[in-house]
Amino acid sequence: MSENTIKELKDSLFYEPRHAMETVSEETVKAADEFCEEYKAYLDKAKIERESVEYFISEAEKRGFCEFDRKRKYSAGDKVYYNNRGKSLILCVMGKKSISEGVKISAAHIDSPRLDLKPNPLYEDSNLALLKTRYYGGIKKYQWTAVPLALHGVVIKADGEKVRVCIGEDEGDPQFVVTDLLPHLAGEQMKQTMSEGIKGENLNILVGSRPFSKDEGSEKVKLNIMKILNDKYGIEESDFLSAELEAVPAFKARDIGFDRGLIGAYGHDDKVCAYPAAQAIFDAENPQYTCVTVLTDKEETGSDGNTGLNSSYLKYFIADLAAMEGEEPWRVLSASECLSADVNAAFDPTYPEVSEKMNASFVNNGVVITKYTGSRGKGGTSDASAEYMGKIRRMLNENGIVWQIGELGKVEAGGGGTVAMYVAALDVDVVDLGVPVLSMHAPFEIISKLDIYMAYKAFKVFFEQK
Ligand code: MN
Ligand code: MN
């Protein structure tokens, strides 16, 4: 056989994932780059779940979405949103088909790992004012010291008034930081394991250093901080008890690399899927099936809590839709399909030992489909069926979307989960589809512009199914 015949045979028989640049047009690359300019603007505006909900509601309203009213009757093409306590959001476009034929759901999360303030956080020690924290989600604690932090969230005052806090983001704002030991004195610390070198209880945020007045007395640095907070926000120390204040990295999203192919930012996991899932439902014109994008909270702590997907809010929303047509909610759910829109670990050439290269996802090889997550022997995963994988694969291929498969690390290297299993628990067909990320859960995560654009296109064709 000639070498050409062998090459042709290989091309037709072998599975060879390729760099997206090898298959897409120049216009697609340009479109991806443009898409990402808006994505970066979103990242800088909405670092926490509440800000994401506000951002997407305002974007939705610009496009004719109205707040969902379960007593109203909706018709095909109507656009609604359901705001769950300001921390998770459902966007929905009514389809032409009966709700009995099921809905198409994309589900991403808008919370990201961070440092939450404790309920009673403020103290003074040795001329410094500090805030106690408890970390939220899975972090490598050493990565969160000596990086500039901003404070986001809300405080509910004693009289019930809600005060919004966002400080450290605007040019000229002060910022905050967790201090770390100098190497000269870190001999003992450096002997510890990386998980023990920085203790969770040591993630204290430095917020002040000047006393209230020259007069002698204790806790005057703390008093000065409380005075500044009282002047600016009208809050007292006890108001921290009814607050959600979240410290997040203060830096902005930036292009990474000489060729600008990547974006570095805080919170790509999972805003890199939430953003395209929302844009896709915004752009889905007159869909056949009713389309739903869920932007959920609490994924990083296990999806528990009434704003997480382990609560019933999605089920209740579907039940309200079903009731409009006199259908049973479980019939709707059983006929529904979902793309669980979450990130996967991109193969990192500096740490090849945690991945199995044949099944890992690679930056720039397109949107990643993850059949199963979990750990060890597929513990804690929904594991999509071959039939559903086949359907999604066909849909992506027919629409020229660059995609790859992925696995969250090699067998027994660790593992993790997504919201897929909570959606699967509703008897919905579901598979994970999202964007590969480098340095996942670090204060500064990396994704590819082409991969996020492919995710957008994937959600869009999913919503536009005939
Ligand atoms: Mn995630
Ligand atoms: Mn995560």
Strand content: 15-25%
CATH domain fold name of the largest domain:
Aminopeptidase
In this entry the ligands are:
manganese (II) ion
- Looking at CATH, the homologous superfamily of the largest domain is Zn peptidases
Q: List the strand order in the largest sheet.
A: 1-2-3-14-4-15-21-17-19
Q: Which runs of at least 5 residues are low in confidence (pLDDT < 50)?
A: none
Keywords summarizing the entry:
binds manganese (II) ion, 466 residues, 29% helix, single chain, alpha/beta, 9-stranded mixed sheet, Aminopeptidase i, Domain 2, Aminopeptidase
Could you describe the 3D structure shown?
- The chain has 466 residues and is an alpha/beta fold.
- The chain folds into 2 domains: 3-112 and 266-463, 3-Layer(aba) Sandwich (Aminopeptidase), CATH 3.40.630; 114-249, Aminopeptidase i, Domain 2, CATH 2.30.250.
- The protein has helices at 3-13, 26-45, 49-62, 187-191, 194-197, 220-233, 268-283, 313-324, 329-334, 386-398, 420-424, 449-463, and strands at 66-67, 79-84, 88-93, 103-109, 114-125, 128-136, 149-156, 162-167, 177-178, 205-208, 243-249, 254-256, 262-265, 290-296, 337-340, 344-345, 367-370, 374-375, 403-405, 415-416, 429-434, 436-437, 445-448.
- Bound molecules: manganese (II) ion (2 copies).
- Residues 109, 269-270, 299, 342-343 line the site of one manganese (II) ion.
